[in-house]
């Protein structure tokens, strides 16, 4: 798989929480947890399951920072 996004983080799926149309997929990347909201259809098409290795691919046009 080749993508233009530079931030490709390999990890293991630890949880999939399915909603009516969207699933929240949690990936553990060396102790850092990343959660992505994707369609239920995408979960099925990719064959995602808890325990399976997957990539968190991050493509962001901006990063916001806040303080108290």
Automatic annotation (TrEMBL):
GO biological process, alphabetically ordered: molybdate ion transport
Domain spans labelled Mop: 2-67
Domain of life: Bacteria
SUPFAM superfamilies documented for this protein: MOP-like (SSF50331)
UniProt keywords, alphabetically: Molybdenum
InterPro entries xref list: Mo/tungstate-bd_C_term_dom (IPR008995), Mop_domain (IPR004606), Transp-assoc_OB_typ1 (IPR005116)
Protein's recorded name: TOBE domain-containing protein
